[in-house]
Structure prediction request, 183 residues.
Amino acid sequence: MAHRALVAYRDGDGYRLHYAHWGTGLAAAITPETPFGGRRDRSQVPPVPDRIAHQFDLASSRDDAVVTRVDPRPLARQLAPADVLAAVDPTIEALVVVGPADETSTYLVCPLGLDGGEPLAVAGPTADEERFRRTLITAKDRLGELVDAGALSPERARRALWETLARLAPLYPIDDASFLRPD
Prediction:
């Protein structure tokens, strides 16, 4: 899995937003010595997803010169917390938030639609990302079967999915940026 990520660096009162295509293990790779996650494998040069490229008026092939895991060229600067979340879409799997002292928190993007799409939520941080992802997939499959059989409404299925995921990690609707605001 490509594990596309947006990386939001706290910068004064706002955030600088960056893109990373290979997000697995990215938070641990971001340190004061490697603020963009260190070098990446040059054999893997993926394009920026079309929706992200369009949203930020970029060429989707802009990755060809990037040598770090996080593209050091920001997608946007001085974003408010709500604007960071507005950039998240179903093609993004994680949001890595980097604080002023290079501390990181990873939030997983959760498509709550039983068909894989919206509405979206953001979960985390969680100690067991793999378990969370497995639970998301398994619960969506089971709830989808119940909806298809007419035993459960889509609204109840989404509510049950939310409750299941909320037992594993803090869960935020995509329009709730409270976890991005400084204390």
